[in-house]
Design goal:
Blueprint (H helix, E strand, L loop, with lengths): L4 E6 L5 H12 L3 E2 L1 H11 L3 H9 L5 H10 L3 H19 L2 E4 L3 H4 L6 E7 L2 H11 L7 H19 L12 E4 L4 H13 L3
Parallel strand pairs: 1-3, 1-4, 2-3, 4-5
Helix pairs in contact: 1-9, 2-5
Length: 194
């Protein structure tokens, strides 16, 4: 396989996690998503729920960051470093798929990593979030935009590139082509047959 490592970044509600699970079954390799949080939490002695919340709360407050840099590393930075180490370890252990967690940035130096971004039109994402995921949001559109803003903010604060920028990825897929077809495209690209 040309790309034994696959990272999948995605808009919330685009089906990226489901696509990753499909690719995992097709290629018979493990997929890691929230598992990265669980492993990093064990190593840090923090709860997985706390670490997941930290990802959503990346602060852009200059004075807060200046204060933390003069006293100690912020908890957000500690979480990112712990997750980065887990991602690097998983990549060293063998072929795998890593969903989110800035994995494409963490593994950017590796030539054997296929970087994928999954997106979809807002209307399709609203349908998926409300009907398939059964997430209860009073205003699904605002909820999705907020989720994407949080993901972008977290990613952009650590990476020297922008979340969702086509120049960062080998493959960008609109999931409205179908989960199965999207998974097949990723598999073909990973094998080097595309």
């Amino acid at each position: 396989m040309k790309y034994p490592l696959i990272t999948i970044a995605r808009e919330h509600g685009s089906g990226g996690r489901v696509i990753a699970q499909r690719v995992s079954r097709m290629l018979d390799i493990p997929v890691y998503d929230k598992t990265v949080i669980d492993i990093a939490a064990q190593e840090c002695g923090l709860s997985p729920q706390f670490m997941e919340e930290i990802e959503k709360r990346r602060t852009g407050n200059f004075l807060y960051n200046l204060y933390l840099s003069s006293t100690n590393m912020s908890i957000v930075d500690q979480v990112y470093l712990a997750q980065s180490q887990v991602i690097k370890t998983l990549a060293e252990e063998g072929p795998c798929i890593i969903v989110g967690r800035c994995a494409d940035h963490v593994l950017r130096e590796r030539g054997d990593c296929l970087r994928v971004f999954v997106y979809a039109p807002l209307a399709d994402r609203i349908r998926r979030v409300t009907q398939e995921y059964r997430e209860n949001a009073a205003d699904p559109e605002s909820y999705l935009l907020r989720c994407d803003k949080q993901r972008a903010s977290y990613y952009n604060s650590f990476a020297d590139t922008r979340w969702g920028d086509r120049r960062n990825y080998h493959l960008m897929l609109n999931s409205t082509i179908g989960i199965e077809l999207a998974a097949r495209f990723i598999c073909e690209a990973a094998k080097g047959d595309a």
